Amino acid sequence: MALTKRQKQVLDFIATFVDENGYCPSFEEIARGLELASLATVHKHISVLEAKSYLKRGFNQSRSLELTPKYVQEQRRGKPAMAEIPMLGRIAAGAPIEAVEQREVLNFADFAGNGNTYALEVRGNSMIDDHICDGDVILLERVSQARDGDIVVALVKGSETTLKRFYREAGDMVRLQPANVALKPIFVPTRELEIQGRLLAVLRKYR
Fold it and tell me: Which of 69, 145, 197, 198 satisfies CB 3.0 to 4.6 Å to 153 for a cystine?
């Protein structure tokens, strides 16, 4: 079923919001962002997009909208394939080593071909000891569960997101551990924490 112009705008707004924030927008944020008259109008568009299999919505969950693979595939249709970059060997960052040319290819399709992969720009230096610096771009897999030691994007108390290492603690608590000796860990009850992504890669530009 074809989308109307407004339905496409709603989908694009949600996708852009998730890319920039790491979590989905509320109905109020959609209404404000698209200057819609009421929340009932937003609800109507969301319901239609669900029926057309472009969105999934969880029940009894805050910010539970999720774009389906159908939307992601249609967005990619007609776009050029993800570039492959030749990887010609290895370079020493310590003692010099003999240069031996190798013919390999670095392919980003594993990231770009997954509808659950998204990117965020890092702000701050709380993870600097893990070599994640202010201004870096991180690639994340959208997940809702994490293992101890994973670097995750976590939504705390439904309002603030942070990038930290995840650890379970006694008493149904979670420790969000920074990688910066100047900062203290954050302790959060499990019920007040939502995992929104797990770190896949770090990208850094120098110009």
Answer: 197
